Amino acid sequence: MHKFDEMFAQVQDSGPLQFQGQSLGGMTQVQVQGVRDHYRTYAEWLGRQPQEIMRSRREEAEMIFRKVGITFAVYGAKDEDGSGTERLIPFDLIPRIIPAAEWRRMEQGLVQRVTALNRFIHDVYHEQEIVKAGILPMEQIRGNAQFRPEMMGVNVPNNIYSHIAGVDIVRAPNAQGEGEYYVLEDNLRVPSGVSYMLEDRKMMMRLFPDLFSAYQVAPVMHYPDLLLETLRASAPSTTDDPTVVVLTPGMYNSAYFEHAFLAQQMGVELVEGQDLFVRDNFVYMRTTRGPRRVDVIYRRVDDDFLDPLAFRPNSTLGCAGLLNVYRAGNVTLCNAIGTGVADDKSIYPFVPQMIEFYLGEKPILSNVPTYMCRNPEDLKYVLANLQDLVVKEVHGAGGYGMLVGPTASKEEIEQFRQVLQAKPEGYIAQPTLSLSSCPTFVDKGIAPRHIDLRPFVLSGKEVQMVPGGLTRVALKEGSLVVNSSQGGGTKDTWILEI
């Protein structure tokens, strides 16, 4: 038997369920004693399912995902035959279930946090009151790789910079040993993954329609409508009927499926940089009927590649002259240029203070305790405890550029020690959280795997989101890294309506 609390001594999403990995009499063996109430009906249902049926459902899901083309690219990776980098993100059949009350508090915390972050970005590019108040050192802004001096003094519609935010949430024990949600990371530039949230729900409804009559699961399929509403609400005042496009780097980008999916779902054009041009300080796209003015660009291209006249001169992914049009207020970019200054990991520790400074409120969602290696005392502690900490590059993403101390070799720890001593300002460190785990259908049967959650927060005339998000799961036994580029998978996330 695998008993979750005995194996990991941690908070579980489902409670101290017991699972047997191998089938017995063809049925999935699940003991429901001690199951959290919101998982009980599902656990009883799962106990009645033959494992061969579950395996066939998993094969069916994989076949459909591959047929539809729901893939991502891993840069620098090769398949076994040495060709191609396209991979399916593994999909797990067992949903992650969150009670309505837990979601309501999380939602309130997300609205609060994203509102404060947008206030912060506006402040960074205008009065910099948070620096004058002595809360954030100027070098934390000026030395930030994502700070864009070109944005100083630029006004954007509704003072919204991050229209689409993906906030990574983990559940772990608090000081009282009870489960609590913590913010692990803010993604404010071009957060990805929402297409997998939608496709996972569609797949679960296709494979297990009976479950949706047993549970009142809040819907998520209206996300594209909310996204389009948010984008249109951000349009410049120069138009009453804005034209929205999705700007993609092209088919070789790791998230191209998502770019095409969202454009199709919203009913707007998917464009590349070569499809756009600037004339008379407005942006136009080329169409078979002639040029058409563009008012809102949902861009999935990084800042450095947006405008070769302002940033990288060799970029072919953007549109020459775009920054001037943007600064003139004749086009809206979602998300804004320079938004990344707020989601750098060296800024993350200051977010609770931002909430109090800009909103006059106590944070609803807590940060994970964080050591800033640029501080001598923090660095001293980190160097002495590398074997127990997770160390992250402040500009890193995708699970790269990090050290997970408890699973690292002595050689890896010593190599990282030298890197930290050479460039301490480039890293933060956090304790190794006892992340909650969720029952997951793996090759050997059902076993616990660690998870996180990325809700998607939309900021337009109001801050709103669909009830749910993308649950990512670390499929390797004992792993804490959920990123798809590092072998992670996804689950459908069920927010209960009552």
Automatic annotation (TrEMBL):
Residues 95-474 form the Circularly permuted ATP-grasp type domain. Pfam families: CP_ATPgrasp_2 (PF14403). This is Circularly permuted type 2 ATP-grasp protein.
